[in-house]
């Protein structure tokens, strides 16, 4: 029970802007082709939230999608930006979703009606803002 209601994240969000993309993806060792694919690309993030259960899908231009399904507080099988599979336990802290990926720390929150995602690796902070489109 937190103040944002349990459907706060549900919606479709289109990439609007980001900061430190290149520094960050190099830090986490993303291959060059994946770096190009992700740069300034209009990723649409679709989130379905049902209480503590989430389905988080990223639609890339050209038809590639990545989907992670998880329940807050339970270990789940996840996939990174680069396609690596791993297990993580996603937490909810103060209305933010918090997850530790193999080589970066990730948070997501709804701020001013936008989806704000922040990933941190070795002192490099990557921010991505997406505007709600549905």
Automatic annotation (TrEMBL):
Keywords recorded for this protein, A-Z? Cytoplasm, Lipid-binding, Transport
Question: What's the protein called, per UniProt?
Answer: Cytosolic fatty-acid binding proteins domain-containing protein
The source's superkingdom equals: Eukaryota
Might you report a single GO cellular component term? cytoplasm
Grouped into one coarse class, the protein's main location is cytoplasm
Recall the GO molecular function terms of this protein's record.
lipid binding
Q: Which SUPFAM superfamilies match?
A: Lipocalins
Query: Matching PANTHER family, A to Z?
Result: FATTY ACID BINDING PROTEIN (PTHR11955)
The UniProt entry's sequence similarity note says:
Belongs to the calycin superfamily. Fatty-acid binding protein (FABP) family.
Read off the InterPro entries from this record.
Calycin, Fatty_acid-bd, ILBP
Q: Where in the cell is it found?
A: Cytoplasm
Which stretches make up the Cytosolic fatty-acid binding proteins domain?
Answer: 11-28
Record the organism: Callipepla squamata (Scaled quail)
């Amino acid at each position: 029970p937190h103040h944002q209601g349990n459907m706060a994240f549900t919606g479709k969000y289109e990439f609007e802007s980001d900061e430190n993309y290149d520094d960050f993806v190099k830090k986490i060792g993303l291959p060059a082709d994946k770096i190009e694919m992700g740069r300034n690309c209009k990723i649409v993030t679709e989130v379905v939230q049902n209480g503590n259960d989430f389905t988080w899908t990223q639609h890339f231009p050209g038809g590639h999608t990545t989907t992670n399904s998880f329940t807050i507080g339970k270990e789940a099988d996840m996939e990174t930006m680069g396609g690596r599979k791993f297990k993580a336990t996603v937490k909810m802290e103060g209305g933010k979703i918090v997850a530790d990926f193999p080589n970066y720390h990730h948070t997501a929150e709804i701020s001013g009606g936008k989806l704000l995602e922040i990933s941190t690796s070795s002192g490099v902070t990557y921010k991505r803002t997406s505007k709600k489109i549905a």
